[in-house]
Amino acid sequence: xxxxxxxxxxxxxxxxxxxxxxxxxxxxxxxxxxxxxxxxxxxxxxxxxxxxxxxxxxxxxxxxxxxxxxxxxxxxxxxxxxxxxxxxxxxxxxxxxxxxxxxxxxxxxxxxxxxxxxxxxxxxxxxxxxxxxxxxxxxxxxxxxxxxxxxxxxxxxxxxxxxxxxxxxxxxxxxxxxxxxxxxxxxxxxxxxxxxxxxxxxxxxxxxxxxxxxxxxxxxxxxxxxxxxxxxxxxxxxxxxxxxxxxxxxxxxxxxxxxxxxxxxxxxxx
Length: 270
Fold this sequence. Notes:
The protein is of the alpha+beta class. It has helices at about 10-15, 20-40, 45-85, 90-120, 175-180, 250, 260-270, and strands spanning about 125-135, 140-150, 155-165, 185-195, 195-220, 225-235, 240-245.
């Protein structure tokens, strides 16, 4: 396998000017020492000249090496970004802590907004339609892998994210987190009939899991919030699973996904 690296002009000048540095330093030292000898300066001035030339040479060589190394490493990183996926452990570590704070606020906001919409748009044959419970659990979504495309326009950011939301998976949880874990749960309360003849039913949706490979494209702008357009699309069919119990609730509810024809039809649509 042959790997080609396009070296920037700055790196080119650093690398090919490097052999000239000792030559230029030597010429400067000879001319200065000739001047000092010509005008009968003492040995102390010569030793001072040698110290100055040595310091200048060491500093300039270190600077050239550092700049060349940084530019070459930058090009290697760009090549690796295109060809390889990288992990996002640092942001997952942040999400694990931030999710415990933000999820209750998000759940309350969803319940307040959706419940208001349902109450004002209840069908005539129903007495009430309420979202009584909504939680996404204590386990945060994860970014499994990231692939970045650096060779795009300056105002375009394109990335491929492997994302997953698997709250039922306990393999990456500590024993304390596993004990206090709360699974996602959505409860929709429906009341049929009018007046005295009223029947209540709870539709339960829980154990939601999701995995997929998503492409994210951002178009940046100079105006706040500096993102003009966000494009999201799946590069392959995502894997989605859940438990849906329209009757019976938590105790006696039957998951409709156990019905073969319904589950196959749902998977084909995904």
